[in-house]
């Protein structure tokens, strides 16, 4: 693995090069790590990996001593090949930090203008629209008796909802949803040259579309979320200074608005159907569904790790990590830490403290879309349990995950039911 980071571990910190940061479900390894080496250095990542809840929580909630700006070229593990960068450059694509990569006044400004549409009071009125999207897609497959539930429902709903919030015309929805590619591998994985080229071509077209949406919003801001962001920036006298950021936000909003929900919900369906008594429980008692959503977020997070940079020396589980170090918080491990969650590896829709998960991060960088994600997941479970209570996994299938550190869930989940 090639990396832009090269510093070695401090004395006394164990190596963890037997850890595969791109493995889809490394829960057995992480359970051992929490007991035996809760902090370890991964040479390929050039980073310290934190596996315990308390350590990860500190990183995400700290008000100082941690930077969201992780490294040169942001998230990338490898230096892009010249041909990939040429494709992006010729398309006019200019990388810019997203909200999750900003600190201080810049972060406060951009969060203040992007966050209003995601507040809980603004999200609740979307329930009818979301439910209609779910029911229409279930209507289309109910008589079939089997489906890839990710492709048929779990990807489609969050993507449609965020594009609706952005004011994207119906005739553009299919085109924008087509901007699917190995971008997560490019940003958070170990991409080969072909993946880099494929991603560059996709991002070039996606970026051109996003810049067009942003430019139209600047010229004539509507009542959609991008138009609202433009109005707020203009009111604050910051539109010109934030023009490049606005292009980036328009693009990143599409990805952040549905990829994480899709990955988590896909993993959640697998967790439920691999534990059929849990599936039956929410079918028989729909009042369990809101807590089942929290348990899915805990047990099957679609954001397995996140990365930050330390600005101060800090001790984590007995290891003194020096200032300047890159740290990866293994959220998929912290969310199962037995010091916080009894029998944390077990999936339990009745778990009393399921909502203590760290899936949405914490502090000033708490995920803005958390209320939207929970609403979408709740409605999907309500309709699935009502319409297809006999849902089960197709036996013998192998689940495949995108090989990257930070955005992954089962890419396909084959399910079946009695179509009668």
UniProtKB/TrEMBL annotation:
Pfam families: p450. SUPFAM superfamilies: Cytochrome P450. Keywords: Heme, Iron, Metal-binding, Monooxygenase, Oxidoreductase. One of its GO terms (molecular function) is monooxygenase activity. Belongs to the cytochrome P450 family. This is Cytochrome P450. It comes from Pseudonocardia bannensis.
């Amino acid at each position: 693995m090639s990396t832009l980071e090269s510093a070695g571990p401090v004395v006394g910190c164990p190596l963890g090069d037997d850890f595969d940061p791109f493995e889809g479900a490394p829960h057995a390894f992480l359970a051992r790590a929490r007991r035996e080496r809760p902090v370890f250095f991964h040479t390929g990542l050039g980073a310290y990996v934190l596996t315990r809840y308390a350590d990860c929580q500190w990183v995400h909630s700290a008000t100082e001593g941690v930077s969201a700006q992780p490294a040169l070229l942001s998230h990338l593990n490898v230096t892009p090949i010249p041909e990939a960068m040429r494709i992006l450059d010729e398309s006019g694509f200019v990388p810019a930090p997203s909200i999750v990569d900003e600190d201080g006044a810049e972060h406060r400004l951009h969060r203040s203008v992007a966050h209003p549409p995601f507040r809980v009071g603004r999200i609740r009125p979307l329930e009818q629209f979301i439910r209609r999207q779910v029911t229409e897609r279930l209507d289309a497959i109910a008589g079939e008796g089997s489906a890839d539930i990710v492709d048929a429902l779990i990807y489609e709903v969050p993507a449609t909802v965020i594009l609706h919030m952005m004011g994207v015309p119906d005739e553009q929805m299919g085109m924008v949803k087509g901007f699917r590619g190995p971008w997560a591998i490019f940003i958070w994985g170990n991409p080969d040259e072909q993946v880099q080229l494929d991603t560059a071509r996709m991002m070039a077209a996606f970026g051109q579309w996003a810049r067009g949406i942003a430019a139209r919003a600047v010229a004539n801001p509507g009542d959609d979320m991008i138009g609202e962001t433009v109005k707020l920036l203009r009111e604050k006298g910051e539109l010109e200074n934030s023009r490049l950021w606005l292009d980036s936000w328009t693009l990143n909003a599409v990805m952040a608005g549905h990829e994480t929900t899709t990955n988590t919900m896909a993993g959640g369906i697998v967790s439920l159907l691999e534990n059929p008594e849990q599936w039956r429980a929410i079918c028989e008692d729909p009042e369990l569904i809101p807590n089942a959503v929290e348990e899915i977020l805990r047990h099957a997070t679609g954001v397995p790790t996140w990365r930050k940079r330390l600005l101060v020396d800090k001790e984590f589980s007995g290891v003194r990590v020096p200032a300047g170090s890159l740290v990866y918080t293994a959220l998929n491990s912290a969310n199962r830490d037995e010091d916080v969650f009894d029998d944390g590896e077990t999936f339990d829709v009745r778990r009393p403290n399921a909502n203590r998960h760290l899936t949405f991060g914490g502090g000033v960088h708490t995920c803005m879309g958390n209320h939207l994600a929970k609403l979408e997941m709740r409605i999907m479970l309500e309709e699935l349990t009502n319409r297809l209570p006999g849902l089960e996994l197709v036996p013998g299938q192998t689940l495949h995950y995108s090989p990257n550190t930070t955005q992954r869930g089962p890419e396909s989940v084959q399910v079946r039911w009695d179509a009668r």
